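Researcher: We're reviewing a set of sequences before deciding which ones to prioritize for further study. For each one, I'd like a predicted 3D structure that I can look through quickly. This is Immunity protein 22. If possible, include the structure in token form so it fits the rest of the review sheet.
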Amino acid sequence: MEQEGFVSLWVGNVQSYEELDRLLTVSYSDEGDFIPSIFAKHFEIRRYDDAVREAEYYEEASNDLYQLLEGFSYDDEIAPKFNTLVQEELPNDINAVILLYNFKYTGEIVEATILSNYLRYLGSVEYQ
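Model: Here's the predicted structure for Immunity protein 22, in token form for your review sheet.
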């Protein structure tokens, strides 16, 4: 799933910034083995480079992708591409965005409810 030059996007509704952070926290065992985040486990992602992951929680929910992606890396390039890719109206209650850079998600799970939080995969686009 790691693929240079691609970025994958998830949006959703989460309870708080702290909850988003908890969903995305990766850890390591005492032996140094990688333990995926709750988010990664639910979307069956074995591993991604956490250094090129960006995520944001918004106090004000929206369904405007341009607004939701503003301020992220390569936003002027990826926002129009995701807007073209997503051909449906998004729900009004989106308050969280997760972007995995150099990653092209190919899993079959497109949405998940995780501990009262809802996340949905919208797609992957090229950037750079």
